[in-house]
Amino acid sequence: MAETVSMERARTLALPKVKIDDGFWSYYISLVRGTVVPYQWEALNDRVEGAEPSGAVRNFKIAAGLEEGDFYGFVFQDSDVAKWLEAVGYLLAAQPDPDLEAVADGMIDLVAAAQHENGYLNTYFTIRKPGEQWTNLMDCHELYCAGHMIEAGVAYYKATGKRKLLDVVIRFADYIDTVFGNEPGKLRGYDGHQEIELALVKLYETTGDRKYLNLSRFFIDQRGTEPNFLVQEADSRNRVSHWGFTHGKNIDLAYFQAHEPVREQQQAVGHAVRFAYMLSGMIDVAAETGDGELLAACRRLWDNMTERQMYITGGIGSMAQGEAFSFDYDLPNDTVYAETCASIGLVFAAQRMLRLEPDAKYADALERALYNTVVGGMSRDGKHFFYVNPLEVDPKACGGKNKKYDHVKPVRQEWFGCACCPPNVARLLASLGSYVYTAKDDAVYAHLYVGGEAELELGGTAVTLVQQSDYPWSGDVRFEVKPEQAATFKLCLRLPDWSPSASIRVNGTDFSYQTEKGYAVIERTWQQGDTVELALEMPIMRIRSNPLVRGNAGKVALQRGPLVYCLEQADNGADLHLLLLPQEAELKARRAEELLDGIVVIEAEGLRENAKAWGSSLYSTAGRPAAEPERLTFIPYYAWANRGEGEMTVWVREG
């Protein structure tokens, strides 16, 4: 019997209670509403000229009997529609939009029409493989797609109060509960791609029906146990994969995080998105059930992921083979995968840990992924996306010239046949307001410094928080606290790991604060209009890797605030590998309003190795030619590849 411990979760703030008005993030949220979601709707309907077709909406029409034709796309194509609907739900929660709501309602009608009478819903098996449901959970993402649709149903119901999609996913979840479980006649299995675990907890929180929590826990508890379900299932079809190959003697169970029970796992392994979604579901179930053993596993896996296998940009999953983790400290920059969806999964897991235990290390990682890989996964026009997020790119190596870089793109793409990342970015940015604060008892925690207004209740008193800043360019943040009446509570402000010092003023007077797990705690009786000014020192930092990270030996990266910086060819010319940043070089931050809608760049006097002095020689016994002075300009990593194709590197040799 697992140890049961008391776990009281902090609450996130409902999206209608958080109004974002921020110099950095308002642009992206407006972009999601005005460009990204409409553009993705066109892409899902195959109306974007030159982009890879999706087929996702048409699949639902065919499954509903409204059109003739065959299923198109990947087996998980339904999930793109689900994530789009979820993003719409978040947008509608923040701000009504009757036209967008009408479009979504029409799509929901299609989803409902495609649902089987028993509650089953999946266009691939309805159209292409009728009668073969639940026969290939390893490969075919049935429960993964179900999970995304459940999340969409919950989000849309919370935003609009409309139950149609919620009722669809309740019927589906009820049917799934009759198929899976430990009872005689049920499948003791789980999906090859985790997702439904965290979705079922959301459904439980929304409906109060504990069977959904129990089902989520069943899926988590079953994974990796013996006899191994995935092996048995593969054997039942002679180990023939949906993807056209035959598994050999040893199936790579670690790829699915099914190599051992989750409570026994020690390291982040396998497909990175699967891992991050699994970890999120584990945290949810541990919190809701008080499972101390499961929580201990969550902490252990989180620490391994972030302390030994996470890129400086918040990217995770270092190898293209399997879109997966490899081993501790293996973080190559040029062949990296770092799928956008994986960093989004990291954000999900971080938020869940923050609800359980407000420790700044979780918010630091969340912020790192959000400001670098996640927002960098989308172009400034909202119509181009990265699936892979490299830290070093040479376009000459891409495009088939060197096969090991086939997954790396030097520019963002309009769409993908496997289009999981664009709608994932949309749903995260549309729900950004729910990541800024958590509240518990008589304390509110500010995890992110995002301008706007938040309404919450602390100790029975309604409180409004107004936050203002020029973050991430400046570390000065101002809060105005507006309790409905005088009230005593704690305002806890995160002290980021990148800031060596911080000062706080309350109502214009210096305040001596205590810290708890990386948060400055301000406890007092608050009055209407009290102000808090947080000044975070924001130096330019030279970051160096653990010596065990081979790819960064002798190299340095620059970071200012939450932003990691990079060199780009547009500013520094070609052959970035020839550039050196001397240890004694002065680093200067400059506001460049003319660049990329206004950014802060970092400039330094660097050196460039003289390649021309080598002539045509490939090798030489002569000494290295003297390097020549060159002005270096670093831009925020998220902003690269918005000015055409060119080289980029985060890590630069230190001279």
Would you write up a description of this structure?
The protein has 655 residues and is α+β, with helices and mostly antiparallel strands. It has three domains: 11-435, Glycosyltransferase (Alpha/alpha barrel); 437-536, Immunoglobulin-like (Sandwich); 541-654, no CATH class. Helix content is 34%, strand content 18%. It has a seven-stranded antiparallel sheet with strand order 2-6-7-8-14-10-11, with no helix packed on it. A six-stranded mixed sheet has the order 1-4-5-9-13-12, with no helix packed on it. Helix 2 (56-63) packs across helix 4 and helix 7 (142-160) runs parallel beside helix 9 (196-207). The longest helix has 20 residues, at 25-44.
In brief:
The chain has 17 helices and 23 strands. By secondary structure, it is an alpha+beta fold.
- Can you identify the CATH class of the largest domain? Mainly Alpha
**Which regions are unreliable across 5 or more consecutive residues at pLDDT < 50?**
none
Structural class: alpha+beta
Using the alpha-carbon principal axes, give the shape. Answer: globular
Strand content: 15-25%
Distance between the termini: 58 Å
Strand order of the largest sheet: 2-6-7-8-14-10-11
Domain Non-reducing end beta-L-arabinofuranosidase-like GH127 C-terminal: 541-653
InterPro entries: 6-hairpin_glycosidase_sf, Beta-AFase-like, Beta-AFase-like_GH127_C, Beta-AFase-like_GH127_cat, Beta-AFase-like_GH127_middle
Protein name: Glycoside hydrolase family 127 protein
Domain Non-reducing end beta-L-arabinofuranosidase-like GH127 catalytic: 17-433
